[in-house]
Amino acid sequence: MTKKSLLRRAGVVAASLTASVLMSAQAAEPIKIGSFLSVTGPASFLGDPELKTLEMYVEKINEEGGVLGRQLELIHYDDVGNASNARNFAGRLIRSDQVDIIVGGSTTGATMAAAPLVQQAGMPFISLAGAVTIVSPVQEWVFKTPQSDRMAAERILWDMERRGFDKIGLISGTGGFGASGRKQTLEVAGEYGIEVVADETYGPSDSDMTAQLTNISNADGVDAVLNFGFGQGPAIVTKNYAALDIDLPFYQSHGVASDAFLDLAGDAAEGLRLPASPLLVPAALPDDDPQKAVVQGYKEAYEERWDSRVSTFGGYAYDGLMLAVQAIEAAGSTDKAAVRDELEDISGYVGVTGIYNMAPDDHNGLAPESFRILEVKDGDWMLVD
Amino acid sequence: MFSEFLQFLFTGITIGATYALVALGFTIIYNASHVINFAQGEFLMIGGMATVSFMGMGIPMFFAIILAVLLACLVGVALQRLAIAPAKNADVVTLIIITIGASIFIRGIAQVVWGKDYHVVPPFTGNEPIRLGGAVLNSQSLWVIGIGAVLVVALIVFFTRTLIGRAILGTSMNKLAAQLVGIKTQMVLMLAFGLSALLGSVAGVTVAPITFTSYDIGILLALKGFVAAAMGGLGSGLGAVVGGLLLGIVESMTAGYISSEYKDAVAFSMILLVLFFMPRGLFGGRTVERV
């Protein structure tokens, strides 16, 4: 951090202190955080932990005195995984609820449907969805917390290159996640000197992928295999892979980075690698890792409060909310343009998902390194890098 | 070369056996009422999910399966009593729509009770695949095929040799005439739903080690199962098995020799052809002969 920005930061803190004193003096109105999430419906595995996280931390922040001396108020709608609902709710948040910032959008579809509205209204918007299209090209008012699938592909290919593989077989699901991952992998593979020599797919309801895997293992000179997919498909691929006794290093995507995947795939998962959030392996992080405390704190708080396993998706909401709070504090007000500028200016924020360094041309702020490479060993995750 | 072919064949059999077992479940209710029960997939789901949840309570697998099957039968009977029976004079299309509604309802309950995660059911006999001529076959596939074969024989015996089975067929052919000869048609329908749930839940538990199970697995499995049943000729047990295996093998051969992108397209084109030239399905004629 440069001296100049330090000075500015100090100024901002001083300003916000004064502001908070002034605000609390007049028993200020709450800061309204708007949200639309897919709490029910097919994408509920995203929206459910996200909403729980937002509720929990809004409560916590309020107990600790709020932001700028004002309480936070969470206004949220359930878009049921439907993009046109998301658009309607975004409109309602902007026009009738008059929120100060929006943190939400569980799916890429919901986010992209709402983006034109926030752009038009000049509303800071932090999305919790994955695809790279949300921030590329950059839209002035739209930010996002999760890494994109392109980054996952880059991270995997980086690890493959490091291990000296130059020909790989790719198998991917035909669902949105798998199809996008396949596209990104094919696009960036060349940059790592890696050639995709077999390219197979499977449908969301397929119950056996042995035929595709047989073709991949018979491809000429294949060094490693990568599966980009989501849901139960990758677990079936993993089991088939083990049953076929394919003796090649096996990679999965971040789409299956959860303990539930280990339960499904069992012994078959032994030795496979994937990129994942450090949230999966808080205990394995070295003590000097800056993310260790944040990750452990979030995991413990979530699991204690909701009595269910923490998920990476809730982590996106945690980072979204904290980035919003930090930007509002730095701006010293809820002036939308100032908050937006501060969001773009965030650097070195240590979150659950990674360390964010936003920039005018980077509204995600994460580097591929925020994905940790994990390997399954003795039925548990082990940190490789 | 040959081991490759063998592998594709085995894969096809594994996939096809799953479809076949699911397809069998559609036969009983179809035979009893000409209703295609779209809640059949939910019986599969209850079979798998209830087994997982009973095993989670520490009940040994065998008894967990029996309990799960009983639970599914109860749900089947309740479905007929509470949703189908009150609409007794409705036509077949209305009843089909009721089963769609019921399937959404059951799925919703399952989502609340059992959550949204996928679960694993351990294979009946070991995880070790069977190796044959350079190809591997999932040992659970043999269970699926075996149980499928037993069910086909049982269904044929049931519908041709037992009084209740004949009563079910009679009801489907002419409800009024069946009533006149003393068949309690509502009773028969209830029985048909109970039996169908039994068949479905057995299928659900048997395929779960291959496909995993979750609250929405019914949609995925029932769709292909229904296609297999339609291709084999709705109402025919043998047709369901042949249709299922054929569908599975065509899918796997296409994925292996042409491209995995086209496997569904080829499979569905084949179904269109079959239904174009044989509108009653491969074994559909049988139903008529029984008259």
From TrEMBL, chain A:
<dbReference type="InterPro" id="IPR028082">
    <property type="entry name" value="Peripla_BP_I"/>
</dbReference>
<feature type="signal peptide">
    <location>
        <begin position="1"/>
        <end position="27"/>
    </location>
</feature>
<dbReference type="InterPro" id="IPR051010">
    <property type="entry name" value="BCAA_transport"/>
</dbReference>
<dbReference type="Pfam" id="PF13458">
    <property type="entry name" value="Peripla_BP_6"/>
</dbReference>
<dbReference type="InterPro" id="IPR000709">
    <property type="entry name" value="Leu_Ile_Val-bd"/>
</dbReference>
<keyword id="KW-0732">Signal</keyword>
<comment type="similarity">
    <text>Belongs to the leucine-binding protein family.</text>
</comment>
<feature type="domain" description="Leucine-binding protein">
    <location>
        <begin position="30"/>
        <end position="379"/>
    </location>
</feature>
<keyword id="KW-0029">Amino-acid transport</keyword>
<protein>
    <submittedName>
        <fullName>ABC transporter substrate-binding protein</fullName>
    </submittedName>
</protein>
<dbReference type="InterPro" id="IPR028081">
    <property type="entry name" value="Leu-bd"/>
</dbReference>
<keyword id="KW-0813">Transport</keyword>
TrEMBL record, chain B:
<feature type="transmembrane region" description="Helical">
    <location>
        <begin position="142"/>
        <end position="164"/>
    </location>
</feature>
<dbReference type="Pfam" id="PF02653">
    <property type="entry name" value="BPD_transp_2"/>
</dbReference>
<feature type="transmembrane region" description="Helical">
    <location>
        <begin position="217"/>
        <end position="250"/>
    </location>
</feature>
<keyword id="KW-0813">Transport</keyword>
<feature type="transmembrane region" description="Helical">
    <location>
        <begin position="61"/>
        <end position="80"/>
    </location>
</feature>
<dbReference type="InterPro" id="IPR052157">
    <property type="entry name" value="BCAA_transport_permease"/>
</dbReference>
<feature type="transmembrane region" description="Helical">
    <location>
        <begin position="6"/>
        <end position="28"/>
    </location>
</feature>
<keyword id="KW-0029">Amino-acid transport</keyword>
<feature type="transmembrane region" description="Helical">
    <location>
        <begin position="262"/>
        <end position="283"/>
    </location>
</feature>
<comment type="similarity">
    <text>Belongs to the binding-protein-dependent transport system permease family. LivHM subfamily.</text>
</comment>
<keyword id="KW-1133">Transmembrane helix</keyword>
<keyword id="KW-0812">Transmembrane</keyword>
<keyword id="KW-0472">Membrane</keyword>
<feature type="transmembrane region" description="Helical">
    <location>
        <begin position="92"/>
        <end position="114"/>
    </location>
</feature>
<feature type="transmembrane region" description="Helical">
    <location>
        <begin position="185"/>
        <end position="211"/>
    </location>
</feature>
<keyword id="KW-1003">Cell membrane</keyword>
<dbReference type="InterPro" id="IPR001851">
    <property type="entry name" value="ABC_transp_permease"/>
</dbReference>
<protein>
    <submittedName>
        <fullName>Branched-chain amino acid ABC transporter permease</fullName>
    </submittedName>
</protein>
